[in-house]
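worker-03 picked up job from queue 'complexes'. Input manifest follows; four sequence lines, order preserved.
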Amino acid sequence: MRTTALDLDAAFGALSDPTRRAIVSRLARGPATVGELAEPFDLTLQAVSKHLAVLTRAGLVERGRDAQRRPARLSGPALGDLTGWLLDFRAHVTEGYERLDALLADDPQTPSPPTPRARRKR
Amino acid sequence: MRTTALDLDAAFGALSDPTRRAIVSRLARGPATVGELAEPFDLTLQAVSKHLAVLTRAGLVERGRDAQRRPARLSGPALGDLTGWLLDFRAHVTEGYERLDALLADDPQTPSPPTPRARRKR
DNA sequence: GCCTTATTCAACCAATCAGTTGTATAGTGA
DNA sequence: TCACTATACAACTGATTGGTTGAATAAGGC
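worker-03 finished. Artifact:
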């Protein structure tokens, strides 16, 4: 069995492609077949099938069976887990920032010292 | 419209690598130099520098200047935007699922009856 | 002015990726 | 059975990626 739980590598990787995000967007409105998913794109069915495989491997999509069709639908939990991870993360960052603000107050290395770096020749 | 705004491709792509997620985790506890970031990894400084470049290009990290050092720190907003995108998304999905549930009133785990367009035979 | 430290740039390499075409499998309907 | 539809598999290709080594750049300390 392939990893059905959330694989952060695979999940983020899957969502890093705009075509796949579009597919996921489409699936958010309900299940669809490969053919239906492929329609808006200028892509072969095989390419879309591959994208679906990537999403499925990442645990974001599940496939069913309806005669010759293999409709895809989103797997809610994975998306929830991903969101959870990011939320945790963001909380952590915010906290860190507050600590940093408290430490620095007014003195620190100024955020962006615009160093006009003249490029030298070789 | 913000041109610095988040690039979903780049942001998700950046977070799809475990080394980069570890770097981001480290940075969530405060800024760090390339050398400091590289320490826990069995990687060259150049490799870590490249990872930082990826994160910077994605808008997730900002670089500063402190003498020879170029400390990296997280860029809070990007992380917030990413989380926001996913939250929106998840909301959409949940809504879709509720609609689907209403239609099917069935066990979503069973692979067989996935769509309302069931045409199976045999 | 050298050294030393911190970081990046440049070139390269192997692996992976997104796409293609062509073929094969699975299921329906006659 | 045979034709048709929907999808997957296989092999290939060019581009990208994650890593390396080696050289260059930037800044400070002596």
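worker-03 released lock.
Residues 17, 19, 43-44, 46-47, 50-51, 54, 67-69 of chain A lie near DNA strand C (CB under 10 Å from a C1').
Chain A has one domain: 1-102.
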